[in-house]
Amino acid sequence: MEDLAYEAVNEAEEQYNVELVRRVAQGDSVAFAALYDRFSPILYGVALRMMNDAAEAEDVLQDGFIYIWRRASAFDASRSSSFSWAAMIVRNKAIDKLRIRQRGERLRERVTSFPELFSDRDEQSALEPLLRERRAQVQSALLEVSPEQRQVLQLSYFSGLTHEQIAAQLGAPLGTVKARIRRGLLRLRQVFQGGI
Amino acid sequence: MIDEAKQKVAVDYVLSELSSAEAVAFEKELESDQELHDFTRELTDGFAYLALTAGAVRPRPDLFSRILAKTNSSKRSKLILVSFLPWALAACLAIALLVLGLENSRTRDELAELGRRDVLAHLQIASLQAQVSAYAKTSAIVVWNAQRQNGLLHLQELPASEPGYDYQLWIIDPAEKTPVSAGVVSVERGKAGTVEFRPVHPVTTAVKFAVSIEKAGGSTVPQGQIILVGE
């Protein structure tokens, strides 16, 4: 029963987010502000972790949300959740900036020395209930995968390195890295199976 | 069933490891293969939610103004003042209230039964409007369950209360001589939040809801300024 009710809340929450994106596409800046309030704490956390620099992270977040404002009409709810869409936009902006500034080496060092599952720099209260719940689910899923899978998943997500670059950095065969990423991702997929 | 080879391509697609031509070809496949489409969406969401491991950090407060300025928006001030009752948020709150009421229930059958009884029909939703300009940007939505005598109040952009004062929620019931207190409410400054409330004693009909500024700890009857009202 609780699962069913929980799913209903999640569905309504996602419907709300999708509605916000739809309104943003129509130029509704109130909806834009609401979307920013909901997603910016975690997306700024992502940008900070990737850039390791507050000013650059702010630039990334800014670029990401300007893109969201301008391209909201391109959001396709059948292809990802609204949060996934926004998160991937900000991540891509961070990767673009990292590549432009050629800071890969510095980033790789930092990412690989980041063994903990979650950053200490964390304001959970800034998250909407749905994202808090998702966070717990991701944590649970990551605890179930092997440390090696977890490592490559996090490298893949936060460094923007290609599989080949990750393999070179870890000194592991490319096939092994690909397999670890795939298995880890399949486990994460199970968490969100059935749509959100 | 998605075979392993196809799974590998889907993973590469999600992680942007495919060439442009390969990605276009894969997207064509997605259009014609619903199972692969769903599988890829789940992979995408699974990967994207790794973002949550970064930890949440609030950006500095003025960053959004900077972003808004870059978008050359001119609609914000106009829209913020109109009644903006996000239907889906109201639905979220309504369902959340239902969940709260069901926390002691045990079976899916019970939920189904409640659905048949149209429990949601007993919920009352009110959008509270600012009575003073200082609260023009504040959004407040109440979902009230008369049967269970409890409710949820969702607040956005509520300014911090002055030291020594609290915000207090009231239920206006024609059967009562004075508004019935539903308790002191607080949300972190500038943030959105939802609080559950109950009146100090049962109310017959909740015709209006109001928020006032009262001395810290609240009052038994409203004594301070009413800042939000809705029905």
Brief overview:
Chain A is an all-alpha fold and 196 residues long. Chain A contains 9 helices and no strands.
Structure description:
The complex is a heterodimer of chains A (196) and B (231). Chain A has 9 helices and no strands. Chain A has 196 residues and is mostly helical. Chain A has a single domain (2-191), classed as Rna Polymerase Sigma Factor, Chain: A (Orthogonal Bundle), CATH 1.10.1740.10. In chain A, helix 2 packs antiparallel against helix 3 and helix 8 packs across helix 9 (174-191). Chain A is globular. Chain B is an alpha+beta fold and 231 residues long. Chain B folds into 2 domains: 4-54, no CATH class; 82-230, no CATH class. Chain B is 33% helix and 23% strand. Chain B has an 8-stranded antiparallel beta sheet with strand order 5-4-7-8-1-2-3-6, covered by helices on one side. In chain B, strand 4 and strand 5 form a beta hairpin. In chain B, helix 1 (4-14) packs across helix 3 (34-48) and helix 2 crosses helix 3 (34-48). The radius of gyration of chain B is 24 Å and the shape is elongated. Classes of the chains: A mainly alpha (196), B alpha+beta (231).
List keywords for this structure.
heterodimer; A: 196 residues; mainly alpha; Rna Polymerase Sigma Factor, Chain: A; 9 helices; 0% strand; B: 231 residues; alpha+beta; 2 domains; 7 helices; elongated
Furnish the topology, listing elements before pairings.
The complex is a heterodimer of chains A (196) and B (231).
Chain A lengths: L1 H24 L3 H23 L2 H18 L10 H19 L3 H9 L16 H16 L2 H13 L3 H8 L3 H18 L5
Helix pairs in contact in A: 1-2, 2-3, 2-4, 3-4, 5-7, 6-9, 7-9, 8-9
Chain B lengths: L3 H11 L5 H13 L1 H15 L14 H8 L5 H6 L5 H15 L6 H9 L6 E8 L8 E7 L4 E7 L8 E8 L7 E6 L7 E5 L10 E8 L10 E5 L1
Antiparallel strand pairs in B: 1-2, 1-8, 2-3, 3-6, 4-5, 4-7, 7-8
Helix pairs in contact in B: 1-3, 2-3
Can you tell me the CATH class of chain A?
Mainly Alpha
CATH superfamily of chain A: RNA polymerase sigma factor, region 2, helix turn helix motif
Number of DSSP strand runs of chain B: 8
The total domain count of chain A is: 1
Low-confidence runs of chain B (pLDDT<50, min 5 residues)? 73-87, 102-120
Outline the biggest β-sheet of chain B: 8 strands, antiparallel
Please tally the helical runs of chain B, counting DSSP H or I stretches of 4 or more residues: 7
Order of helices and strands of chain A, N to C?
A: HHHHHHHHH
Strand order of the largest sheet of chain B: 5-4-7-8-1-2-3-6
The radius of gyration of chain B is 24 Å
Helical/strand content category of chain B: alpha+beta
CATH architecture of chain A: Orthogonal Bundle
Question: Nearest-angstrom radius of gyration of chain A?
Answer: 17 Å
Q: How is the quaternary structure best described?
A: heterodimer
Shape of chain B: elongated
Compute the average pLDDT of chain B.
77
Low-confidence parts of chain A: 109-117
Q: Give the mean pLDDT of chain A.
A: 81
Distance between the termini of chain A: 18 Å
Fraction of helical residues of chain B: 25-40%
